[in-house]
Design goal:
This protein is of the alpha/beta class. The chain has 14 helices and 6 strands. It folds into 2 domains: 51 residues, Orthogonal Bundle (5,6-Dimethylbenzimidazole Phosphoribosyltransferase, Chain: A, domain 1); 270 residues, Nicotinate-nucleotide-dimethylbenzimidazole phosphoribosyltransferase (CobT), large domain (Rossmann fold, 3-Layer(aba) Sandwich). The chain starts with 13 loop residues before the first helix and ends in a 6-residue tail after the last helix. The structure holds nicotinate mononucleotide (NCN) and 5,6-dimethylbenzimidazole. Its EC number is 2.4.2.21.
Length: 348
């Protein structure tokens, strides 16, 4: 029996892509003059199997988990911030809380396991797998069972989003230490040197980054035998990374467009595509993270991010920032007058 994550994603509609592209040519502007706003609307039409796409109903789900590798001192912030930020997300004070409210988007958090006490709230789904993932320099991040559970939590988040009529799905993550796990994972996927991909995460100084490189090298040496994408994820990832992967695959299978956030999310998206290549067509990269490895991950996906605002926050903030662009692309596509309607002369 194949795992659910290997089932084919929904196909985009070539018919609606062609119709939407032809519609764009009728709107009162020189062909192509709205640049990527045009191609975005056309791709959304193909994804939604509609001539007139909409992304009003946006669902944002932040997957949170603690990382065992924090014991190696790889972050500028204490591990307790993971659970404290979970409370802040639902309390309304985090960047993503403000952005989601402003966008009228639904925001939920899935707690996959933190070392510190976490609050309970209607928008927090407590799905604790363990208090933290395994320390990747000493052991695999997850057991096979934990990996399957985390992947499934991603799928379940998507099922909830779908029930509320979601037209655009955004996943985010929160996990102190997860730029270390993500960098290790990306090195394995891309076969690039650690020093090309590593960054300061939440704000390490040069000494801290040098130590982080050493920790990542040790983790890579420990997990040399991991070759297949899901094995790399199990050995070097974390619960939130696995849930991200599961959610992206499930979104593609359900035919829901995905706006991908920064470094961690883009690496998870790349992994989802390595597991199930049809996922790629459903992904829109929202922004270029300031974390150096993001560029390589985006290039490996052969995608150009919409924005470059030097963000390096995570928690879905960069993806939320790009929602107005998608909405405006749809508005223009759906509401501009045609040359015939406006009595404007078309190209000679
Ligand atoms: O997504 C990004 O581009 C990004 C870049 C740097 C840091 N982060 C966030 O910062 C945390 C991980 O950073 P660190 O330094 O603790 O590994 C984690 O909660 C991420 O959401 C996120
Ligand atoms: C405060 C803080 C907020 C975050 N949000 C996502 N990652 C984060 C890391 C820190 C340290």
């Amino acid at each position: 029996m194949q795992g659910w994550f290997l089932q084919s994603p929904k196909l985009l509609s070539d018919k609606h892509r062609d119709k939407a592209a032809a519609w764009q040519l009728q709107l009162t502007k020189p062909a192509g003059s709205l640049g990527r706003l045009e191609t975005l609307a056309v791709e959304l039409a193909a994804m939604q199997h509609k001539l007139h796409p909409h992304v009003q109903k946006v669902d944002i789900c932040v997957f949170a988990a603690d990382q065992g590798v924090c014991a190696e001192g790889v972050s500028a912030f204490p591990q307790s911030v993971t659970s404290q930020m979970i409370a802040n997300f639902v309390g309304g004070g985090a960047a993503i809380s403000v952005l989601a409210k402003s966008l009228g988007a639904n925001l939920s958090v899935v707690n996959l396991g933190t070392v510190f006490e976490s609050v309970s709230h209607a928008s927090i789904f407590d799905r604790t797998i363990a208090s933290q993932s395994g320390n990747i320099v000493k052991q695999p991040a997850m057991t096979e069972e934990q990996l399957q559970t985390a992947l499934m939590q991603g799928k379940e988040a998507l099922t909830r989003a779908r029930k509320s009529g979601c037209e655009l799905f955004i996943a985010g993550e929160m996990g102190i230490g997860n730029t270390t796990t993500t960098t290790a994972l990306l090195v394995k996927l891309l076969h690039l040197p650690v020093t090309d991909l590593v960054g300061s995460g939440t704000g390490l100084n040069a000494k801290g980054v040098a130590h982080k490189v050493e920790v990542i090298e040790r983790a890579l040496a420990r997990h040399q035998q991991a070759i297949l994408p899901l094995d790399i994820l199990r050995c070097l990832g974390g619960f939130e990374l696995a849930a991200l992967v599961g959610s992206y695959i499930a979104a593609a299978q359900a035919g829901i467009p995905v706006l991908v956030d920064g470094f961690i999310c883009t690496t998870a998206a790349l992994l989802a595509c390595r597991v199930n290549p049809g996922v790629e067509a459903w992904l829109i990269l929202a922004h270029a993270s300031a974390e150096p490895g993001h560029k390589a991950a985006a290039q490996a996906l052969n995608k150009v991010p919409l924005l470059d605002f030097q963000l390096r926050l995570g928690e879905a903030s960069g993806a939320a920032l790009a929602v107005p662009l998608l909405r405006l692309a749809c508005d223009l596509h759906n509401n501009m007058a045609t040359f015939a309607e406006a009595g404007v002369a078309d190209k000679a």
